[in-house]
Amino acid sequence: MVVGVPDESGGRAATLTSVAEDGQGEGRWRSARARAATVRTAQSVAGAAQLACVLEVSAEKAGNITPRHDFHDTSYEDMLRSAIALGPELARAGNRGVGETVLAVVEATRRVAAANTNLGIALLLAPLSKAALSGLADPLRARLGMTLRETGVADARTVYAAIRLAGAGGLHARVEHDVRSEPVIGLREAMAGAAERDSVASEYVTDYALTFESGLPALAAGLRDGLGVRDAIVELHLRLLDEAPDTLIGRKRGADAAARVSAGAREVLAAGGLRSAAGRQALRSFDASLRVEGNALNPGTTADLVTATVFVALLEGML
Question: At what angle do helices 119-132 and 300-315 cross, to 10 degrees?
C-alpha cells in the first residue's frame, strides 16, 4: 500500500518508513522522491492515492476522524479500509471517464464501509489520477485542466449515481433533487452551479485553485520549516480552513458557523499552531470545540482538500 521506488543500489524500495529506519538522511529520501515523481504508472498513482488517504486520516486534524477520534458511524479503521479500496479503481482512471472512476471508487468503498467515507476524495482524486496517467508532458495542473474540460454529460450521470449511492449528508433539498434527476449538462457545468456552496465543486471550475495555490505552498512551507509530515498536514488543514470556510459545515450548520470555525483556525495559527506550546494548547481547545453535539462541526470538505493536496505532493515528489 505504501508508495516506494527502488533504491540506488537496486535493492528494496525506499519509502518514508525504510529511509527513516536506515538513517540515511534527507538527501537519499529527496533522491527517491525525485525519481518517484517521474514515474506515473497506474500502480504508482494508486499507491500515492492510498498513501495520501492514510496520511490525511492519520494526522490529528481538528474536528476530523483521526486515530484518537472515531465518529458514531465511522471509525479510523473504516477510513483505512476505504483508503485501500480506492487504489485499484484510481489505477484504472486513465482508461475511463472521470465519472466512471468516481462511481467505481464509491462502489468499492461501500463494500468495505457502511457510511460515506470518501465521496469528496473520489471526486477530487479521480480527475487528478486521470490527468497523471494521461501520458502528456505538460505540467500536472495543465493536464488536469484539460481533463476537467473534457468531462461531459456521461460523467455527470455517473457522478450523480455516485452521490446517490454514497448518501452524502448535508445537502440542501434543491441539490438532492438535482442529483436524483437525469443530467442535461456536463459535469463541469454542473459543478459550476454548485461552486459557491461546495469547495469540491469549486475546484472543478478553478482547476483546483485551493489545492495548487493554497494547499501545496502551505504544505511545502511546513515541511521546509522542519515539521514532521503529519504535523505539516495538521498545519495544512488549519491554513486551508483559514483560507476558505468549510462548505460541509456551511451546508449543515450555516455560513456563520463555518466562518466561526475558520476564525478559530486563524486563532490557532496566530498562537503558533504546532510550532509552540501555546499554539498546541490552542489547537487542543479548538479541536474539542468542533467535537460537541456529535461532531457537528466536522470540517470534512477541508479534509478532502488536504487529501488532494497530499496526493499532488506525492505525485510531484514533494513527499
Answer: 20
Quickly tell me which residue has 481533463 as its cell: 147
| Cβ atoms of residues 274 and 238 within 8 Å | no
Phi, psi of 222 (to 5 degrees): -60, -45
155 contacts 97 by C-beta, under 8 angstroms: yes
pLDDT single digits (tens) 10-63: 333 333 333 333 333 444 444 445 444 545 899 999 999 999 999 999 999 999
For residue 214, CA distances in Å to 17, 257, 308, 312, 319 come to 28, 22, 12, 13, 17
Q: pTM of whole model > 0.85?
A: yes
Grid cell in block for residue 23 = 538513517
Asked whether the beta carbons of 246 and 311 are under 8 A apart, the reply is no
Query: Is the model's pLDDT at 219 over the cut of 70?
Result: yes
Q: How many CA atoms lie within 13 A of 154 on its CB side?
A: 7
Portion of the chain with pLDDT greater than 70, in percent: 84
The predicted-structure confidence for 81-91, as pLDDT tens digits, reads as follows 999 999 999 99
CA–CA separation, 182 and 170 (whole Å): 21
8 A C-beta contact, residue 122 and residue 162: yes
Cα–Cα distance for residue pair 304/123, rounded to 1 Å: 9
Q: Rounded CA gap, 236 and 215, in Å?
A: 6
Report the Cα 239 to chain-centroid distance in Å.
14
* Residue 14, all three cell numbers: 525506499
Would you list the DSSP string of 148-176? Answer: HHT--HHHHHHHHHHHHHHT-SS--HHHH
DSSP bridge pairs for 6:
13
Q: What is the DSSP letter of 115?
A: S
> How far is residue 236's CA from residue 242's CA, in Å, rounded to a whole number?
10
| Strand locations in the chain (E) | 5-6, 13-14
Please tell me the chain's helix, strand, coil percentages from 3-state DSSP, rounded to the nearest 5.
Answer: 70, 0, 30
